[in-house]
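Submission sheet (multi-component)
Chains listed below:
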Amino acid sequence: MKKNKYLLLFSSIGVFLLLVYAAASENFFKEWQAIQAEAKSSEGPIDVRLRQIINPSLKTTDRCVSCHVGMAPGETVVSHLRVAAPHKPVVHSPIEMGCTTCHAGQGLATERLDAHGDVDFWPEPMLPAKYAYASCGRCHTPLEVPNTKRLEAAKNTFERLDCYACHRLDGRGGTIRPGGKTGMEGPDLSHTGIKGFNKEWYEGHLAKKQADTSGLWENAFAEIGEGDRALLDQFLGLQMGAPTLIAAKAEYNSVGCAGCHIVGNFGGDTGVDLSQVGEKDPNRLSYINVPGSKTFPNWIAQHFRLPVSTVAGSQMPALGLSGDQIDLLTMYILSLKRRSLPDIWLPKDRVKAMRFGAREFTTDGETIYTAVCSGCHGAGGNGMRYPGLPPYPSITNRDFLELASDEFVFQTIKQGRPGRPMLPWGVRQNGFSDEEIRSVVTYIRALGGIDAVPDEKPARWAGGDGKLGSRLFAANCAGCHGAMGGGGEGPALSNKNLLASATDTFLYETISKGRRGTVMKGFTEPSPVRKSLTGYEIESIVTYLRSMNAK
Amino acid sequence: MSSEAANPSALRGIWDNLKSTPKRMYGSAFRSGSPKTDRTRSSFVFGNVFLHLHSVRTHIWSLKWSTTMGLGIMTTAAFFITLVTGILLMFYYKPYPDVAYQSMKDIHFVVPTGRFIRNIHRWAANLMVVAVILHMARTFFTASYRKPREFNWLVGWGLLVTTLALSFTGYLLPWDQLAYWAITIGANIAQSPREITDALGMTQYLDIGGLQRMILLGSDEVGAEALIRFYLLHVMLLPIVLLLLMAVHFWRIRKDGGIARPDDADELVSTDPKENYPVFTDDPQKTYQLAAVVKGTTPAVGNGPERTLPSMPHLFYAELGVLMLTTLICLALALISDAPLKEIANPMIPENPAKAPWYFLGLQEIVSFSAFTGGIGIPALCWLGLGLIPFLDRERSGSGKWFGGPGGWTLFKWSLLVGFGASVGIEAFAIHFGWLREWFPSIPQLAITFINPGTVLTLIYALFSVWTVRRYNSTRAGAVALFTCFLCGFVVLTVVGTYFRGPNWEFYWSPSDWPGH
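Outcome: structure written.
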């Protein structure tokens, strides 16, 4: 029975060796220990111990500082280790907010792969550095962001008027001191959107300029026009130390996403609610048709390129966005985290958006149009055709804008077209006010550059024979507008809201002259395939259309 | 004066006592002296409350590796490893939803050796389940359940259930997605009598399934109630039950005359005179007659004890050897492979596929056809059948021998063929052609409850077993056939459930073929 003895002997030796190995790797082979052992502060080597930043109310326990030891509370590491360097100064102290609040990743982990989070089963891998500002969206909701064009205009104005000369913005500028050595540096404007700013700044500057005798103000400051001042005010309202996030949001407000998607308190409900889409777990996404890395940012970027091949069955059309646009939109999507927060951490902007329905885009006609309408009607108002979706009409068409009164366009935006993609933008939750809609109407007019031709006739004047109209409709119109006028290739004509706001003149003239640039040809002109219609016949069709409304 | 004179001597006495205390203390602990003679070896064993669960001498047959393969000791060793590591884990684990997951992450990343200990715990637990099943198979195939060991078979039967329950309750504790949905599936299996009550339209009056699920979870969903319930079961109730049953189990081995061995074991072990150890030839100060007072066929009564060895140290070498081997296996696995920890449990996002712990995946496979068959019908049949074995098979031939009894190896091999063939065949058929629901979409569920791959497979096994009983004219032969078949079915269904089932429980050759979701 010797073999039992040997079994015991060799198993015990094996257990002993494995335990020695486990103990050694536990105590001597940990990366963070090695990093800390090499790091030195000005007073010499630092203690090697697990370090962490805990913020219970934000639910962060971040052990990142065990490797990035220069960022640990109270440490001033001077060695040249890359990962041990101190954090650059930022608005929110990492010592208070932790690391993962902004950078994501797995704060609880103490090994690089796990901590950086690109591992199975960790839903929030670290954000690539270029998207780091997306994390502001966890708590903050930037309000009243214009579209890219206006944001650029505002930024250019700030630059053009040389505000950087005295003021610092996001670490740039603020080198000249108007009062000489004893004077004051202009205040840092990096966070005026959060902390607020003196609305009377212009008057203040002017007064200083007049009171100044040194000549410095005389040269440094000149009068600013009203338009530029409005842009500057808007620009100051957006400064939260995260310029790339604002640019990303401006892009979202430039390509009409809100026409289909809800974010927070506003948007169309045709598409997916995006309010918390940035919280998606990358482990649960399908990467089958996603070239490149299997990361969430790449998935989003690919989705913008080809939505339907990324998400099977997606109704979203490929928008033909440029690489830069996709980058910005990806950033914005990543910022849509909107985590529920304890009250003390709720910033004012989020409260305004959440509780008081504050707009996240500016309500000038242009921004509303680019933020909500341009996805379907096109940036130039020329309509869009996406494969597999009904055509979206041109709204800057000369024939349309001439005939459509402002009231008609206003009612169309306000009431929408029931049963069609056009939503009732004025009568939905947190919908547009009449004033906002009017500004959009004005913008559309400006976009087309065409005024409505005044119409002297009453709203209803068409006579004619409804039965004749019915026959003519079936023969001439049903092909595109549907047998019952429910729409097909052409728009729905039986639509209640259309018939309510369209005047007889509108209908009559559209039928007789058609709409240039579309397949709708004028019916008073003969064509090789049909006879022209007489005025009486067109009136009859209008009468018939009116009877659809009665049904 | 006399008292003064007495004082120094009393003090001296205390001093002397103090000096000799270590020796006396040693003597009081090891009362019989060092185990160098047969007598002191014997008293070493029966003088110790833990060791006396063993008999004083062990038959050489029992010490042969091929007799037990150390599976019972391996199960026990695995249990003690989980006990020690489990207690260590309890220092850090907090049984409350979300907090539990947080503490798992702490154990994984921060607690010194926490991950290692958790890995050991997990591997030892899995090893214990495997070992206890193999141990049961060993006991069955050597026909060791027969008189007088019927009761111990039943105790072992209880130990198997307790082991599975321990493992299952431990599964929820990490509170990650894997745990959460596995337990949800497990609880749904417990709810499976609803299939019958639903079909009979009596669920609203008598909801046995719902009640079972409620008892298990303490709530409608897997939540804080379920977690604390599982925790209490896992760390307290079930370990106590297991320890008690184990004590009974071991003690019964001794009282039943040691490990079962064939009648001719003495001749079989060795005819070499050197291997023939006489009993109590040196230092025969004590007779063994007291044993005769005990009723029944206790160890050495009526048997020549010549082919036995002192348990101390021969048996203990073997036991400690297996203990260390088990530890070695667990440590090695723990170093190679980390215990899984997925995302934090999220009741809003079901795992797809949600899989029960691996040892229940065979059942889940049948549940995918019929909840009642897989959840209650077949398990109940198995438990009942296992419990009845020693009372149905009262034959004597082949006891203590591998595949002993009529049929022997040949029967075992044929049973393997039928067991694997039928289960693989039925699975392949159901996967390839579908089942009644696919052919007749409006068929009542009750029909599927009675006719599904699980019941058909059971029927094939039963018919084969009946045929064997007639062929060999032996209950034992039938039992071997049936047991082997069920074991094969368990293996095949578990493998299919583990490796070949993907989202929506569809068949896939490999997880890499799973569609993204």
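Remark: Residues 35-126 of chain A form one domain.
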